[in-house]
């Protein structure tokens, strides 16, 4: 009976007496015994997980000394959210969505699964409920598991499956990319009444490594009401005015409600005659945070940290070179607009801005391997039909994916692509340079960026320097700034299309 697992409605927990089944086994800290039907007892030697196939897992399984059977507890399956139905001649296990997980046939007076005959994922006893949440966690830029479970239960996003809370889920890239000090007391209300009323803006950078297109800085703009965000990548700080001007004019054309103000710090890229004249002509109030008081512009400061954390985590997972930081930040912004809930309003930023729920069906794991269809006039009969590539995000103005073609060493936008999101990735996608060591910060002032959300005060990372000195160091730019007469590179598109076109 070593290869047979029996469904037992009188068993209090999953248990087996065969050590070979355990993929992981932890010793118990206290003495525990299992009482058998004949009043005999067996000592619990440990508790662990039993992986029966690549998609077959039982958790909290007791390893019981001298137990001659492998037992599956009906009550434990019910506690984990499954449904077990007994009918004449059959036993069915269903998940929370009433999808059939497993059918068991009678053997004598019991129902059993003979695991020697199990082949592939088609037949399984308990499909691991963590499989879907792990895949989605990676696709949405390593957002928290708790947020994903909450979003799935609220039904605010199209294409998001029903997920169940998992215990002890630890993502190592998240630990490397997101560990911070504790935050402060959050705000208790929404200060604006409609999208576009107030825009927060700030510049992050310079980066330690130039992006593929030669950019060093990223301008982050956040709408106060919806928390919808835009990112623009710049070679020089003084390019910020052009991006802000174009965005403000576009938002004014899109909405019949007036924009009231913009808010920034006192940096020279914001406090100058061009911004002053522009705001005066449009009747906008330009609000400035007090010197060395980033908490007064905390909305965008926290968004900065969230985007950088997401980007750093996505880069770290597949050891993607740091020169692709702009693509990672762009993708992080695209995901955040569709996933994050606006506090006190209970809707995503995307829905608050566009009036419809976002979709996540098209999301894929950043940095994964992919294959792009060759579109040339003539291919040899036995020539490969695709190009190897690395997934870098989503096109700004079309329903397409951005892919780095390894052979051509360039980014293309295409919808003719298939993905390999296998986890974990055992082969690095690129050859790494000296600037691409694991855990290397993306930006030189990365210690100063703070967390996203609706918390009130900012939270700089721990440092031996006092806060005022750290903020001053943040604002100092080691690279010379160009005069206004120097040519500027073409503006890079904001993160994600203005319309989702049903994706």
Question: How do the helices and strands line up, and which of them pair or pack?
Answer:
Blueprint: E1 4-8, E2 15-16, E3 22-26, E4 33-35, E5 41-53, E6 56-64, E7 70-73, H1 74-79, E8 83-87, E9 90-94, E10 100-107, E11 110-114, H2 130-139, H3 145-154, H4 172-178, E12 198-204, E13 217-223, E14 229-234, H5 240-254, E15 261-264, H6 273-282, E16 285-288, H7 298-317, H8 325-339, E17 341-342, E18 347-348, H9 349-354, E19 369-373, E20 386-394, E21 401-405, E22 410-414, E23 417-420, H10 467-475
Parallel strand pairs: 1-7, 2-6, 12-15, 15-16
Antiparallel strand pairs: 1-11, 2-7, 3-5, 4-5, 5-6, 8-9, 9-10, 10-11, 12-13, 13-14, 17-18, 19-20, 19-23, 20-21, 21-22
Helix pairs in contact: 4-7, 7-8
State the main characteristics:
single chain; about 500 residues; alpha+beta; Cathepsin D, subunit A, domain 1; Nucleotidyltransferase, domain 5; 11-stranded mixed sheet; 5-stranded mixed sheet; 10 helices; 23 strands; peptidase activity; SH3_retrovirus
Q: What does this protein structure show overall?
A:
This protein has 503 residues and is α+β, with helices and mostly antiparallel strands. Among the domains are: 4-122, Cathepsin D, subunit A, domain 1, CATH 2.40.70; 136-178 and 194-354, Nucleotidyltransferase, domain 5, CATH 3.30.420.10. Helices cover 21% and strands 25% of the residues. The chain has 10 helices and 23 strands. It has helices spanning 74-79, 130-139, 145-154, 172-178, 240-254, 273-282, 298-317, 325-339, 349-354, 467-475; strands at 4-8, 15-16, 22-26, 33-35, 41-53, 56-64, 70-73, 83-87, 90-94, 100-107, 110-114, 198-204, 217-223, 229-234, 261-264, 285-288, 341-342, 347-348, 369-373, 386-394, 401-405, 410-414, 417-420. Strands 1, 2, 3, 4, 5, 6, 7, 8, 9, 10 and 11 form an 11-stranded mixed sheet that branches. A 5-stranded mixed sheet has the order 14-13-12-15-16, with helices on both faces. It has a 5-stranded antiparallel sheet with strand order 22-21-20-19-23. Residues 116-129, 424-429 and 447-503 have low confidence and may be disordered. Residues 470-503 are annotated as: Disordered. Keywords: Hydrolase, Protease. GO terms for molecular function: nucleic acid binding; peptidase activity.
């Amino acid at each position: 009976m070593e290869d047979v697992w029996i469904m037992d409605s009188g068993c209090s927990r999953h248990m087996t007496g065969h050590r070979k089944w355990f993929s992981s086994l932890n010793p118990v800290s206290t003495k525990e015994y299992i009482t058998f039907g004949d009043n005999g007892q067996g000592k619990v030697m440990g508790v662990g997980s039993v992986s029966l196939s690549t998609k077959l897992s039982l958790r909290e399984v007791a390893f019981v000394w001298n137990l001659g059977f492998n037992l599956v507890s009906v009550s434990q399956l019910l506690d984990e959210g499954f449904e077990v139905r007994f009918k004449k001649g059959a036993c069915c296990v269903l998940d929370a969505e009433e999808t059939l997980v497993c059918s068991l046939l009678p053997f004598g007076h019991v129902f059993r699964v003979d695991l020697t005959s199990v082949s592939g994922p088609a037949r399984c006893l308990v499909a691991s409920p963590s499989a879907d949440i792990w895949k989605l966690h990676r696709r949405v830029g390593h957002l928290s598991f708790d947020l994903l479970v909450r979003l799935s239960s609220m039904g605010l996003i199209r294409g998001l499956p029903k997920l169940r809370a998992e215990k002890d889920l630890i993502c190592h890239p998240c630990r490397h990319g997101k560990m911070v000090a504790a935050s402060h007391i959050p705000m208790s209300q929404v200060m604006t009444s409609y999208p576009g009323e107030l825009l927060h803006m700030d510049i992050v950078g310079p980066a330690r490594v130039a992006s593929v297109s030669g950019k060093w800085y990223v301008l982050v703009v956040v709408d106060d009401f919806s928390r919808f965000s835009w990112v623009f990548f710049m070679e020089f700080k003084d390019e910020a005015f052009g991006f802000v001007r174009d965005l403000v004019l576009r938002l004014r054309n899109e909405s019949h409600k007036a924009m009231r103000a913009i808010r920034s710090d006192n940096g020279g890229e914001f406090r100058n005659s061009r911004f002053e004249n522009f705001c005066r002509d449009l009747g906008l109030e330009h609000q400035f945070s007090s010197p060395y008081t980033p908490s007064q512009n905390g909305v965008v400061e926290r968004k900065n940290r969230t985007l950088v954390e997401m980007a750093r985590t996505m880069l770290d997972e597949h050891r993607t070179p740091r020169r692709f930081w702009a693509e990672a930040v762009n993708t992080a912004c695209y995901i955040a607009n569709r996933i994050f809930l606006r506090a006190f309003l209970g809707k995503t930023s995307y829905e608050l801005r566009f009036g419809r729920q976002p979709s996540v069906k098209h999301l894929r794991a950043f940095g994964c391997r992919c294959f792009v269809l060759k579109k040339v006039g003539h291919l040899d009969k036995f020539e490969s039909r695709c190009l190897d590539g690395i997934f870098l995000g989503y096109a700004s103005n079309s329903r397409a994916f951005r892919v780095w073609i390894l052979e051509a060493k360039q980014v293309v936008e295409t919808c003719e692509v298939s993905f390999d999101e296998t986890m974990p990735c055992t082969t690095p996608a690129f050859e790494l340079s000296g600037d691409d060591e694991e855990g290397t910060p993306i930006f030189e002032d990365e210690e100063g960026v703070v967390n996203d959300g609706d918390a009130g005060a900012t939270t700089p990372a721990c440092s031996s320097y006092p806060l005022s000195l750290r903020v001053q160091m943040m604002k100092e730019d080691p690279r010379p700034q160009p005069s206004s007469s120097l040519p500027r590179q073409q503006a890079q598109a904001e993160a994600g299309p203005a319309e989702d076109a049903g994706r």
